[in-house]
Amino acid sequence: MSLRYALLALLTAEPLTGYDAVKRFGGSVGYVWHAPDSQIYPELRRMEGEGLIEGEQVRWGPNSTKTRYSITGEGVRALREWLEAPIPYAPLRDVSRMRAAYFEWAGPESARENLRRHIDYYTEQVGRWKDMRQAILSAEHPSIAARLEKYPAEEHERIIAYKAFAYEGLIARGEAEIEWGRRGLDLIDELEGPSQARGEPGS
Amino acid sequence: MSLRYALLALLTAEPLTGYDAVKRFGGSVGYVWHAPDSQIYPELRRMEGEGLIEGEQVRWGPNSTKTRYSITGEGVRALREWLEAPIPYAPLRDVSRMRAAYFEWAGPESARENLRRHIDYYTEQVGRWKDMRQAILSAEHPSIAARLEKYPAEEHERIIAYKAFAYEGLIARGEAEIEWGRRGLDLIDELEGPSQARGEPGS
DNA sequence: ATATCCATGTAATGCGTTACATGATTTG
DNA sequence: CAAATCATGTAACGCATTACATGGATAT
User: Fold this and answer.
1) Same domain for B139 and B159?
2) Which residues form a coiled coil (chains A, B) (predicted)?
């Protein structure tokens, strides 16, 4: 049910077509909340039905229109309410940890491969998150720029700060994952002897 | 689809009834992979149908039986295969970060309340995870004890080490969450002035 | 004109959640 | 004998995923 709040949050910056929203979910917001097109379009229509957003038909080319959605007063209220309500923390479902717990059933080489992938994955993610954080802090990112234009200058600092703070959480988490992966590789070396994948120099 | 592998992993320690499995998901395994009864019983039957596990009827009281499941050779093969295959990392869907990114829409007091809950939640979890890690390292936990009995002594070290390592990942992650929450509270103080909830001593 | 973007979906399936439901057995 | 535990589900619903599908508009 958070998809709808992600959409509402997006729409507080500027009106968007479904396609615009899909684009956002491919980039910025998508780093925090993933959603495919097939979920976004129907959700927007449902939200319009409930009065949280309003669609207006905009000319697009000579023979066509597109729907541009804006958030309504009720939409803002719903977003606020959601932000102020306590989140029910979802029970854990952690594939990486589950797999690691049973590494004795995989070969050491495949356990290593697993951890290397873990490290690579989070290294890449951390890179992205750091870039996003920078783009937010410098107000370069188009969607943050549009947002700042819409709100008075005294709000800018906090708008930026909270978004950067969110990314800092992702970065910290990612770095913890990388650390964990490295300790895992060391652990495997201790338990099973060092990897045979690399030759000993000087032997 | 990981539920079935969690079940297979459990069954490598000892045969279990559905109810036993449900119990495990309420405790040990449940800290890593959550599943409700309503998912476990049907999944066990499906797995039996696919030959990954075998159910045998065991007397239970004078007029009743229960089904005790054991892992089959094919089940072990399936578990190994899953452990050795690369995990497709699921796209992110992070409610805490999403909410934090839009804290300017909540009041400062409700943003603080949010972060306090975040800190409390992870503090509690970290406590549990640390206890579990200890219980594993000392081989006190009943399910780890049963497991160790079944495998030769030279396997014990790695069986324990990998499970402890998994919990260490959770602990590290939890601690990063707590840290993040604290920095968030500081950030709110900076942006909005300190909380009015507490009086200034000496004023 | 052709490729790439812009725009918008439907359909099938599966995993997971919540709520509801029942009865036997052991333990105190 | 009453309470707690053991045992095993069904049913309805909703969110999410994957695959499939189409056509107009703009840029080169």
Assistant:
1) yes
2) none
* Model confidence pLDDT, tens digit, residues B67-115: 999 999 999 999 999 999 998 899 999 999 999 999 999 999 999 999 9
Confidence of residue B174 (pLDDT cuts 50, 70, 90): very high
Residue of B nearest to A110 (CA): B84
What pLDDT shows up at residue B29? 87
Q: What pLDDT does B202 receive?
A: 47
CB count, 10 Å around CB of A37? Answer: 13
Whether the Cβ atoms of residue B69 and residue B54 lie closer than 8 Å to each other: yes
Using the C1' atom of nucleotide C14, identify the protein residue whose alpha carbon is closest: B1
- Of chain B residues 64-123, which have a beta carbon within 7 Å of strand C? 64
Q: Is residue A117 part of a domain?
A: yes
Question: Which segments within A2-72 are labelled E, that is strand?
Answer: 16-17, 53-59, 65-71
Provide, as residue numbers in chain A, all residues whose Cβ is less than 8 Å from the Cβ of B95.
Answer: 2, 87, 90
Q: Best interface-test mutation with A: which of B83, B123, B124, B160 has the largest number of A CBs within 10 A?
A: B83
Q: Is residue B106 part of a domain?
A: yes
Shared domain for A110 and A64, answered yes or no, is no
Domain of residue B167: give its range: 95-192
Computed over every residue of chain A, the mean pLDDT equals 93
Q: Where are the beta strands (DSSP E) in A34-92?
A: 53-59, 65-71
Say yes or no: A181 and A126 in one domain: yes
- Residue B56's beta-bridge partner residues? B68
Quick check: A203 pLDDT over 50? Answer: no
* Residue from A7, A28, A39, A94 to probe the interface with B (highest B Cβ count within 10 Å): A94
Q: Would residue A141 count as lying in a domain?
A: yes
Q: Whole-angstrom Cα distance, residue A23 to residue A46? A: 19
User: Cβ of A12 under 8 Å from any chain B Cβ?
Assistant: yes
Q: How many helices (H) and strands (E) does chain B have?
A: 8, 3
> Which whole-number Å values give the CA distances from B203 to B184, B190, B194, in the listed order?
26, 20, 15
Q: For chain B, what is the mean pLDDT?
A: 93
Domain contains A202:
no
pTM here? 0.93
Nucleotide nearest to A60 (CA to C1'): D25
Question: Chain A closest CA to B5's CA: distance in Å?
Answer: 9
Chain D: nucleotides below 7 Å from protein CB are 6-12, 14-21, 24-26
